[in-house]
Design goal:
- This protein has nine helices and twelve strands.
- By secondary structure, the protein is α/β, with parallel strands linked by helices.
- The protein is globular, with a radius of gyration of 19 Å.
- A hairpin with a 2-residue loop joins strand 4 and strand 5.
- The strands form three sheets. The chain has a six-stranded mixed sheet, sandwiched between helices. A four-stranded antiparallel sheet has the order 2-1-4-5, covered by helices on one side. Strands 11-12 form a two-stranded antiparallel ribbon.
- Helix 5 packs parallel to helix 6.
Length: 267
């Protein structure tokens, strides 16, 4: 289990500051969704957490340890990062694609443990029936499930997912997010995902982090974060919010400054 701590992190490309003084916490067994309009820095923040890029200022800590004090192999065994654009080689079978997630542990010879862990993850996700299929024979939803299996086979403590349900139909979106939520709780993983659709974020996330122009506008439980004032200020949209015991539903009424597409497509 890993508690993630981000303290006053900033990052820029040249003179352009993309992330500004971001501070947040994320805890094991909880799912955090990063939301915000296009260009707000969501993917950049995820890359910082994955140690793909380094912050200009501030600290990123795993269980209180600054990642700058950890070697690359140690970080790779803790963190699994699945980018939005993740190409699966069509010449590999599903089993081989998932096994590649064990790269941090693999040597010149694949161990019995690596094979067993891969088999167990495929069975746990109900994907064993695809094991011998080639990746290019799968549908979009099946391919996305395989990428999640590849991330999980590393047995990460911190799972970072960038738009894991983009370009999928609503059934596949719900199935994949149900899976992520279940695995996060069962394995007590700290999960952080970027989501475009605010209604899906409200349904599945334990905590929402709203990015706007590289800074955190607000964060907290979905019921507290998703308000008409936030939608107006951050997304430039007038919207109605329906609430019941389990879900928050956002219904856009009209754009104020920007288009309603930032809210996602499922209302």
């Amino acid at each position: 289990m890993v508690e993630l701590g981000v303290r006053d992190v900033s990052f820029g490309y040249g003179s352009e500051v993309v992330i500004k003084n971001v501070t947040l916490n994320a805890f094991p067994g909880k799912m955090v969704a990063i939301i915000g309009p296009n260009g707000s820095g969501k993917t950049t923040l995820l890359k910082l957490l994955a140690n793909i890029i380094k912050p200009s200022t501030g600290k990123i800590m795993f269980d209180g340890v600054d990642i700058r004090r950890m070697d690359k192999d140690e970080i790779t065994k803790i963190v699994s990062y699945s980018p939005q654009e993740n190409v699966i080689p069509g010449i590999l079978t599903v089993y081989e694609v998932v096994l590649l997630g064990r790269i941090p542990y693999l040597s010149w010879r694949i161990s019995r443990d690596d094979l067993e862990i891969t088999k167990n993850v495929l069975e746990e996700l109900g994907l064993e029936i695809y094991a011998r299929k080639y990746a290019n024979q799968l549908s979009g939803g099946e391919r996305q499930m395989i990428l999640i299996a590849q991330a999980l086979v590393r047995e990460p403590k911190l799972l970072l997912l960038d738009e894991p349900v983009s370009n999928l139909d609503i059934r596949n979106q719900l199935e994949i997010l149900d899976l992520i939520k279940r695995i996060t709780r069962q394995k007590e993983i700290t999960t952080i995902t970027v989501l475009h659709d605010l209604n899906l974020a409200a349904r599945y996330a334990d905590k929402l982090v709203v990015l706007n122009r590289g800074s955190i506008y607000t964060c907290g439980e979905p019921e507290a974060v998703l308000t008409p004032d936030m939608l107006s200020s951050v997304y430039g949209v007038e919207a109605k919010i329906n609430r019941n015991n389990r879900f928050v539903q956002i219904i856009p009424i009209r754009p104020l400054n920007r288009g309603v597409e930032a809210l996602g497509q499922n209302f």
